[in-house]
Amino acid sequence: MTLACTWDHVHIRTPDVEATAQWFADKLDAEILRAPGRVDIRLGGALIFLAPVTPEMGVNPPPVTPYQGLDHFGLKVKDIDAVAADLKARGVEFTKEPHTLKPGLRIAFIRAPQGVSIEILERDPKYT
């Protein structure tokens, strides 16, 4: 049997749901989705659930890279250098500048709120 599945969402815990949603909207053009009692975002066709956390919950701080577990999520773009220039103009922090990882693959990493790492990547179709 093969597991037939599709992506549903990524979940981010944050002490300030509104500020996190606004960061993704301002920096990455995400769509903010509001429903009673919750705020989520749609980014590149995927849902990102934003859940509030408070100090009373005993929440740990964001991990320091590298660590075990989910490391990052990736967003595929066209013309990574132009995208990087636009993100820098928006004040986005780069943890790794755009560079060629291997023929046909250029990547960069940015930092989102709560230490979330996002890979920006451009794939040349002739290498896939």
Kindly describe this structure.
By secondary structure, the protein is α/β, with parallel strands linked by helices. The protein has helices at residues 17-28, 80-89, and strands at residues 9-14, 31-35, 38-43, 46-52, 73-76, 93-102, 105-111, 117-123. A four-stranded mixed sheet has the order 1-4-3-2, with helices on one face. It has a four-stranded mixed sheet with strand order 5-8-7-6. Strand 2 (31-35) and strand 3 form a beta hairpin. The protein is globular and about 50 Å long.
Task: Spell out the blueprint of helices and strands.
Blueprint: E1 9-14, H1 17-28, E2 31-35, E3 38-43, E4 46-52, E5 73-76, H2 80-89, E6 93-102, E7 105-111, E8 117-123
Parallel strand pairs: 1-4, 5-8
Antiparallel strand pairs: 2-3, 3-4, 6-7, 7-8
Number of strands: 8
| Portion in helices | 10-25%
Strands side by side in the biggest sheet: 1-4-3-2
Strand fraction equals 35-45%
Q: What is the H/E string?
A: EHEEEEHEEE
User: What Rg, in angstroms, do the CA atoms define?
Assistant: 16 Å
Q: Which ranges are low-confidence, i.e. pLDDT below 50, for 5 or more consecutive residues?
A: none
- Summing up helix and strand content along with how strands pair, one would put the structural category as alpha/beta
Gap between N and C termini: 27 Å
Could you say which overall geometry the principal axes of the C-alpha atoms support? globular
Q: Biggest sheet: strands, sense, closure?
A: 4 strands, mixed
**Average pLDDT level:** 91
